[in-house]
Amino acid sequence: MAPGVILVRCALLLMLLPLCRARSKSESPAANNFQVVFINMANNSYRTVYAFAREMYPKTVKTDIQYGTAGFRTRATNLEYVMYRMGLLAVLRARYKKAVIGVMITASHNPEPDNGVKLVDPHGEMLEQSWEAWATKFANVADNKLEDTINELIKEYNITNMNDRVEILVGKDTRPSSPHLAKSVMDGVLALSGKPIDFGIVTTPQLHYFVVCRNTRGVYGHPSEDGYYKKLTTAFKKIRGSNFTNGNYTNRLAYDGANGVGAKKGQVP
Q1: CB atoms within 10 A of CB 184
Q2: How many CB atoms lie within 10 A of CB 120?
Q3: Residue 47 contacts residue 41 (beta carbons within 8 Å)
Q4: Active-site hit among 24, 28, 108, 184
Q5: What is the pLDDT along the chain (269 residues), one digit of tens a residue?
Q6: Which of 23, 80, 154, 232 is most buried per CB count within 10 Å?
Q7: What residue spans define the domains of the chain?
Q8: Which residues does the UniProt record annotate as the domain Alpha-D-phosphohexomutase alpha/beta/alpha (predicted)?
Q9: SS3 category, 103
C-alpha cells in the first residue's frame, strides 16, 4: 500500500475514534449511564460525518430511490448507505422539532431479500411530507454533495441547536439484513452526535407508540413492550365493556403471526 494511502487512512481513523467510542456505548432501553464522546458540530464542522460516509458508507447505487408513504423499500444489499444517511436525517429532524424521532427498519410484506426504512415523527405520525423530499434527496445525492445537502437543509429550516443530544429510537423486523442495517442507521445518528436508542425487534406500531411516549414524558404510556400491551388491552376492555359478549362482539381470538415479528413474539418460552 502506498505511503500516502496509509497516511489518509490513519488520519481517518483518528477522526473516527470519538465515533467508535460512542458506537460501543449505544443505548438499549435497559442501559444506564449512557455516555458518549461528542463530535463538535460548531461552525458546521462535519469532517467526521463525511469521512465516515465516504470510507464506510459510500453510495453504491446509481439509480435513484424514492421515499414514499412506506418510506424506502428495495433490495437490502442496496440500503447500507441509505440507512446511514437516514440516521443523519433523523438527527436533523429531531433537532428541528426539538423532539424524539423514530427510525423503523422493515419492508413489511416485501420478500425477505428486501428491506426498508421509515422515519417516525414526534406524535407517532409518518414523516412530514415536505421532509419526504429531503429524505429522497439525502438518499440520492452523490457522496461529494452530501455536505452541501446537509448545510442546505440546516439553512432552510434555520437549525441552530446542532449540539443538542437528541434521541433517535431505532426498531427493526426479523429479516436477516435488519441487524447490520440498524447499525448503519445508528452510525449515522452517532456521526451527528445524536443518541441512538435500540429497541431491537419490534413491530412498526410499537415503535410509533414508543416515540409518542418519549415525547410526552410517559404521559401517553410507558415506552416499553409491556407498556404497549397494557395500552392496547386497556383500550380493548374499554371498547368491549364488562361483558365478554355485547351483541356485536364474540369472544373469539384469531392469531396471525406470519413469519415476522408477530411469530417471534408469539413463541411460548
Answers
A1: 22
A2: 27
A3: no
A4: 108
A5: 444 433 334 444 344 444 444 444 445 543 333 333 334 444 445 666 777 788 899 999 999 999 998 899 999 999 999 999 999 999 999 999 999 999 999 998 888 999 999 999 999 999 999 999 999 999 999 999 998 999 999 999 999 999 999 999 999 999 999 999 999 999 999 999 999 999 999 999 999 999 999 999 999 999 999 999 999 989 888 877 777 666 666 677 777 665 577 767 666 55
A6: 80
A7: 26-219
A8: 94-133, 163-215
A9: strand
